[in-house]
Structure formats: C-alpha cells, structure tokens
Amino acid sequence: MNSVDKFDILIFGGGKAGKTLAMDQAKAGKKVAVVEAGLIGGSCINIACIPSKTLIRSAEVAHSMKGISEFGITADNVRSSLDLVRDRTARVVAEMVATNQAGFDASGFDLVLGWGKFIAPKTIQVETASGTRTVSGEQVFINLGTTADVPDLPGLAGAAPITHVEALQLGDLPTKLIVIGGGYIGMELGQAFRRLGSEVAILERGPRLAPREDIDVSEGILKILGGEGIEVALSAYDLSVSGRSGESVTVRSADGRVFEGSHILVASGRRPRTAGIGLELAGVEVDDRGFIKVDDHLRTTADGVWAMGEVAGTPMFTHASLDDYRVVKSTMAGGNRTTKGRMIPYCVFIDPEFARIGMNEAEALKEGIEYRVAKLPMDVVPRARTLSQRKGFMKALVAVDSDEILGFSMLGVNAGEVMSVVQMAMLGGLPFTTLRDGIFAHPTITEGLNMLFANVSASAVVRKAA
User: Residue ranges of the Pyridine nucleotide-disulphide oxidoreductase dimerisation domain (predicted)?
Assistant: First the structure.
C-alpha cells in the first residue's frame, strides 16, 4: 500500500450533502478531504437539476414565442437553435461550478479528483491524474449518488441510447425523440424537446403517468402533454429495440405497437453508485437494490461510516440530500435529528409545474385516514388568467376531526412556489383557516389559496377510510 494521507473527515463523493459537510467541517478547523470523480459541485449542478432546468427554460421561451400573438405581439422568423441552447446551458453550469470551486478553496478542504474505491476500512485509493493516492479518515461519509439505469431490453444496448446527460449536450435537434420511461425526467425532457421542435413519443410501461399521484393529476398531465403534440404510449412493456440512436431507431412493444425515431432517451430509473467500489472491504452493507443500508441517523453497518443522499436511499432530490447533511451534522454534535417523519416536498418541472407536499388522496385512503378535500381549477385564479396560464388545479386535504392540513397538490403555473407557502403552514402546525383568511397580494397565484381553502369549510367532500 502507498503511504496513507490521514484526515479527520473523509468524504467519498461531492454531492450536495458531501460538499456542504466538507466546507462546514473544514471551516470549523477539521482536516477534511473530498474524493470526487470530477463533477465539481456534484451531479445536480453539472448534469442534472441545473442544466436540465436551464434547457427547460429555453424551451418555455420557445413555446411562448409560438403563442405570442395571443398577447398582441407579432414576431417573424422565430426559430430555435439547439446548439445555442446547449451553449447557454453550458455557461450557466460553468458559472455555478466556478462558484462552488471558490467556496471549496475558501473553506480549505483537500479536493482529491479521481476514481476511488475502498481498499480497507475507512481507507480509499484514488486514481488521480498525477498517480495513485491513498487517503483515510477517522470519520467517513459516502455521498456518491446515483446514475441512469439502462434497462436490459433486447437491442437497447446496441442502439447506444442517450441518457439525460447526453441529452443536455446535443448540438443537433432530434427529428423524433423516443423516450423510454414516463417519470419526472422523461416528462420534463420530452416536453422540452417537443417545444424546441422535435417530435416526441414517451413510452411508459405503466397504465398511467405519475403513478404515485392521484388519478386526476395523471390525467391532467397526460392532457397537457398530449395537447402539445407529444405521443404518450401507456402500458408499453416488453420493449425491443433495433437501429442506432442518432441515426434511426425502431422500438416495438409486446402488444405490437411500433415507434420509429431518430434518437432514444432512456429515463426509466436510477441505480446507486455502489458497485465495484470495495464496500465489502469497508464493512458497509447494501440492500438488494444496491443502496447502502443506514439507520435513522444515516449510520452504515461500519463503525464511523455514514452514507448520505441518493446512495443511502434518500429521496432523489437535492433538497433531501441537503437535509441529510443536517441529520449527520446533528449526530456528530450529539444531537438527535433523524430522517424519520421528514416532510419532503417535490416539484416536477413540466409546464405548468406539478408540486406536492404531504399526503395525496391515495396515500390517505391507504393509511385509513379520513379527510376533507377541496379542489380549485387554476382557471378561476385571476393571475393565471392575466398570464394566460389557466391549465391545472390546486387540491388540499384537511383532517376531518381538526383543521390540520394533511397535504397539498398543485398542477399549475408557479406550483413549486405556492406549494412552499402551504409547506410553511404545515411545518408551523397552522390550521387551514390561516391560509383561507390570510391576506395575500393581488393578483398573485398564491392568492388562489384563499379560494381553495374557503372551499374546505363550505363544500369539501369527506373521504372515509375503507
């Protein structure tokens, strides 16, 4: 073994939780090292959230330009250029990478760039550009995230499909993009490429989109995507592929349907980055899906080793990973913050957005919780009309025997921002009447919460547990 560089804190993977912990502990005077394969700032900044939402914004502008006459404006020769969209995305990413690098430099931790693997408990060997380096830590934190899972379908590997990573780097617009998987990534990028000018087909093996949401949400999203000319094929399973992505591809489903296109985008799930990194030598166990086993404090089966973020089975959101940092920091300081019972919001950045906090109807019924439900179409919200963004609805669940807000779902413009208002009320234990009677600025989308929660006391339907 090479000489070992010893640290107080060793972080394997520089995602949101890892880089935040590293800067925090380094500033506190600890000797800290971060082993990172090369994505300065983590996957969110480089290949996921930030570049995808930047691309989506370009697509939103392109879509708005196509309907600009509705606003009394005439524009000629409007067209999109994917290479320029790609370049804008790259600039945004580069700026955020530079900001992160500056933060790293200021905190003073040791950034070890290269591929790493455990060779002994709390000891990682890293293949860097300048040679092999071995590092160890008194406390070790694994934050390696996930990668796109390419399913084992006949002909798919040979077709060289793209994932969200390559999709964000394309310079030429696909003539027709076939998306395998109707989850968040598939819906977001499918809609974005359609708006930029591609024909798009989304193939979902399940009977509906967004299967964890209520049926009205699934139907609403399907109507929005279909209304923009996106072909959505549900119950498309046992697929087989021929051809090559970037040239010409054909996908066949078990029921005989045939889909032809120029590119295939795989968006059918994620798998943890745990294979081939020597976890067995570190004493770190994984579950049957490859995710690292952790307790409520994110401690692994190895003493002094934690796992954070997606690799530990945390919901696949950057904000959830950030809270893992808070859990770990609390534990290190002798506190008792845990992952148990966390209220984690999420937002799907289709247009209009979908956002949810707390329970939906399906979950409440499954758990035998009785509730009142109120629903409001976005069309009646004045601000939605001024924006000409009238699609979708808000929906709230309120307890039957109290005024507690159990959950909120919204498919509509600014859904993520409005959802956050409801989340604050839920975190504060405020009754629904606070949002019903609160004075919100007019005209704003958030003002719709007044109308939505007014329906709870007036005409809400009571759903009883089976």
Answer: 344-449
